[in-house]
Sequence to fold (322 residues):
Amino acid sequence: MLWLVTSLSVASATPVFDAERLYTMAEQEEHELEFGEALEHYEASIALDPSTRYALRASARASWLRRHAEGNFAPLARLERVRRDSRAQFDGAAMDALAHDLEAFPSGAVRCEARMLVAEAYGSRLGRAADAQRELSSLLDEPVSCEGPLRAQAATKLTDLAIARGDLPAARDAAARAKKDAPELLPRVKRMQRRLELHRVALGLLALSAILGVWGAARTVRAGKGPLLVRFAGRALVICVYLAIVGGLLATAFEQGHALPFVLLSASTLCVAVLARASALSGSRSRAARAGRALLGATTVLAAALLVLERIDARYLESFGL
Fold:
């Protein structure tokens, strides 16, 4: 028994035991927001014995604390009090107070993270998009002390807010401000711009086809050719129903397939075809006129397809670069 007690006493004085005791102290101090003491004890633990089971964790925590040491850890303590209070992030007054206080923080990682925390609370929990936009924009204006991933996150959120309100110039500006940290944002905004322009062109083509088709149908009926248009519509209906059924069945045969695009595309094609036929029955028979009507009909079908896919799920358009 005496030998066992002596062995334990010697073990308690080994560097391993002291290093682990210092690590435990540092963890408790970090929990109590005593970050300066925690950093000192993490580093002392590593220096005493870098081979303990806690050495990697101590090194990581010490490195993190050194990156957040501005203002002698006072800004970090202020931020962590809010982070650890789940109710504060749903409290507008608490977030306003942090937004006010962070303006006095020294430039560094803590101020960047505080801005992101406030912006996320404003945008996601408090429904204050304008305030979220202000904080995200200020984060992008911070010096290079803001880490790349945080800047990329801020630019993405700022871009999403701009797109949600239909302000593509603002979205393009936000993407350009972080093109080094989030290079995928600018091409995304450009795709959105192309999609918006094509959306407008598609609406114009549909409107033009509808006007010409209705005008042509009225002339066709006056000329006594109404039965010809009705027979064409019946044949076109059969073909479009067939295409909708076959396309829908093929789509649902796949795990992620959806029949709705085929149904709506067939319905829109039927409408375009009937309107185009009405224009043909009442219009000029010259080669140029027929070529023009064929071109208008084909582009109108594509326009209808664009609008249908955009309405159902815009992700369908991504495979076309839109």
